[in-house]
Amino acid sequence: MKVYPFKVAPNFPESLEPLQELARNMWFSWNWEAVRLLIRLDSKLWEESYQNPVDMLTHLPQEEIDEAARDDSFIAHLNRVHEAFQTYMTAKTWFERQHGPAKKPLVAYFSCEYGIDEGLPIYSGGLGILSGDHLKTASDLGIPLVGVGLLYRQGYFRQYLNPDGWQQELYPENDWYHMPVTQERDSDGKPLRISIEIGDSVALAQVWRVQVGRVALYLLDTNFPENSPENRAITTQLYGGDREMRLRQEILLGMGGVRALAALGIEPRVYHINEGHSAFLALERIRQLMQTHGLSYQEAREVVWSSSVFTTHTPVPAGNERFDAALLRRYLSRVAEQVGLSWDDFLALGRENPGDKSEPFCMTVLALRMAAFCNGVSELHGQVSRRMWRDMWPEVPENEIPIKSITNGIHTRSWLSHDMDELFDAYIGPRFVERPDDLSVWERVDSIPDVELWRTHERRRERLVFFVRKRLTEQLRRHGAGSEELAHAQEVLDPHALTVVFARRFATYKRGTLLFNDLDRLYKLVSNPDRPVQFVFAGKAHPQDNPGKEIIKKLIHYARDERFRPHVAFLEDYDINVGRYLVQGADVWLNTPRRPLEASGTSGMKAAANGALNLSVLDGWWCEGYSPERGWAIGSGEEYSDPEEQDHIEGHALFHVLEREVIPLFYERNHVGLPRGWIEKMKASLKVLGAQFSCARMLMEYTETSYLPALAAWHELTEDSFARAKSLAAWCRKVSENWHAVKVIGVEGPEKDAVLKVDTRIEVRVKVALGELSPDDVSVEVFQGSLDSRDEIVDGTGVAATVEGDSTDGVYTFRAELDCESSGRHGYAARVLPRHEDLVHSYVPNLITWE
Question: Per-residue b/e over 721-733, b at no fewer than 16 CB within 10 Å?
Answer without folding.
Answer: ebebbbbbbebbe
